[in-house]
Amino acid sequence: MKYTIRHLAPAEYPLLEDFLYNAIFIPDGVSPPPREIVKQPELQLYIKDFGKKPADIALCAEADGKVVGAVWVRIMEDYGHIDDNTPSFAISLYKEYRSRGIGTALMSKMLEELKNAGFAQASLAVQKANYAVKMYRKVGFETVGENDEEFIMLCRL
């Protein structure tokens, strides 16, 4: 599949709400939550006023003439928060574009961007049952903490 990776333009930042919803891991046999879930404060911190903080960076994958995936980072006190100097990741692809290497390419490009911007590390939180854990390890993330449901992962740049 042909796709390009580029910076998400500020005019496209509203797309992050849809990608945030699509980033929610839904185990097999579980019904998806209502779309309004992204309005909850613990999820809004991923997207509210995106682009206004110094560490806000968003990349997207474009295929078939449309944005099909996004990866974005910001320093925030989210589930994967390490410290106030470590950006936390969010990534999402529309279902029909998953398992094609696009997510790995987005993650790798963002890690390169963060390294070039002078960051020493990046973090994320992921549910243990999420198939993406394997991809995160592949691009350099290591588990540095966990709870019953999630791994806290860190990539040293």
TrEMBL record:
N-acetyltransferase domain mapped to chain residues: 3-157
Key words, A-Z: Transferase
SUPFAM superfamilies noted in UniProt: Acyl-CoA N-acyltransferases (Nat)
Pfam family, one: Acetyltransf_1
GO MF entry, a single one: acyltransferase activity, transferring groups other than amino-acyl groups
Domain of life of the source: Bacteria
PROSITE patterns: GNAT
Keyword match Transferase: yes
Keyword check for NAD: no
Database matches in PANTHER family: L-AMINO ACID N-ACETYLTRANSFERASE, PUTATIVE-RELATED
Protein name per the record: Acetyltransferase, GNAT family
